[in-house]
Specification:
The chain has helices spanning 2-62, 83-86, 93-97, 121-134, 180-197, 213-224, 238-244, 251-259, 274-321, 324-327; strands at 90-92, 109-114, 141-144, 150-158, 165-173, 202-206, 228-233, 270-272. It is α/β, with parallel strands linked by helices and 333 residues long. The chain has a domain at 87-149 and 182-282: 3-Layer(aba) Sandwich (Rossmann fold). The strands form 3 sheets. The protein has a 4-stranded parallel beta sheet with strand order 3-6-2-7, with helices on both faces. A two-stranded parallel ribbon has the order 1-8. A hairpin with a 6-residue loop joins strand 4 and strand 5 (165-173).
């Protein structure tokens, strides 16, 4: 019994020692963890302090040396702009009508003329038509808005042969502002019909077209049907158009058209007709020079003829006054 009791006491003491060891060890580990945390905090504080001190040193060093320049900003690249929007595309008229460009031009063409009354649209349309025929092509189809304003009227004229007064029917231009919208609609229908029929591979539209909506539908319809469309812009000078206007449109009407003029969209292909107009101007000058030279030659010929007539008359007078003896070769000296 005593041995058992002693054994139990020793066991209790052992367990108590182990508990004390365990408890003391736990406290030791807790203290060690706390010490590590404190060292980490102190390290952070010291490192941040050293960082602040280094920054202070750098700041103080900037006072002696200039600060390094800032890095340049990254380059900016402008987004590429399509050629159709950046610049206006134009084709020379001789490249369409004359060789060698004529051989490679589109098979079907449409030229839309734009310009105020008196700007020369009808004249240019005729020039293009004549040049196309001269180069061996078929005559283009010309659709003009002015044709819808032509009305038949009766005029009393004097017959040059009999001298009597006779009544004749003539076509005259009479502008009606109230009918212009209706006539433009009729012109559009005629244009569509001409395109659909396919008889004319070359079409010219002669119209004021001062607003884009007046010709945009023609442009789109012709493009859908496989035509290459060109825009031809005429001179829009009010004073010049007023002088050349033959349809009795007032200067106020022309000025109002120019005031409401809209620019041709940049994606529309244009045609440059200046060379054609210059060639016509040169031809007219040459014709005037030739006419002047012919007039001078005729005047010189007339002068020579008059001199010859005068000389013949003088010879006849001398013959009349020569004595009969001189006629027979005798001299009375």
């Amino acid at each position: 019994m005593d041995s058992d009791v002693g054994r139990e006491d020793r066991g209790k003491d052992k367990w108590e020692e182990e508990d004390r060891y365990r408890n003391s060890g736990g406290d030791r580990w807790v203290r060690r963890d706390r010490e590590k945390d404190g060292d980490r905090d102190s390290y952070k504080g010291s490192s941040s302090g050293r960082y602040r001190e280094s920054n202070k040193k750098e700041d103080s060093s900037h006072g002696d040396f200039p600060a390094p320049p800032d890095a340049p900003p990254p380059p900016t690249f402008a987004s590429p702009v399509p050629p159709s929007e950046s610049q206006v595309r134009a084709v020379l008229v001789e490249d369409l009508l004359c060789p060698p460009g004529r051989a490679t031009r589109p098979a079907r063409l449409v030229i839309l003329l734009r310009g105020p009354p008196g700007s020369g649209k009808t004249f240019v349309a005729k020039l293009i038509k004549d040049k196309e025929v001269e180069m061996g092509g078929s005559a283009p189809r010309i659709l003009a808005l002015d044709d819808y304003f032509m009305v038949e009227t009766e005029k009393e004229e004097k017959d040059p042969e009999t001298g009597r007064k006779v009544i004749t029917k003539v076509m005259e231009y009479e502008y009606e502002a109230a009918m212009e919208k209706h006539y433009r609609s009729s012109l559009l229908k005629a244009f569509r019909k001409t395109v659909n029929d396919g008889y004319f591979p070359f079409i010219i539209v002669d119209c004021v077209n001062h607003q884009v909506k007046h010709f945009e539908e023609m442009w789109s319809y012709a493009k859908q049907k496989g035509f290459q469309v060109y825009i031809c812009e005429m001179d829009i000078d009010v004073s010049m158009c007023t002088k050349r206007n033959i349809h009795n449109r007032t200067e106020e009407d022309i000025a109002d058209i120019v005031k409401n003029w809209e620019e041709t969209p940049r994606h529309h292909l244009r045609i440059d007709i200046r060379s054609l107009l210059q060639s016509v101007a040169i031809t007219e000058v040459e014709m005037e020079d030739t006419t002047a030279e012919d007039d001078k030659e005729e005047e010189l010929k007339e002068g020579d003829d008059e001199k010859e007539e005068d000389s013949q008359d003088g010879d006849e007078d001398v013959t009349k006054h020569v004595p009969r003896d001189y006629e027979h070769g005798l001299c009375l000296c």
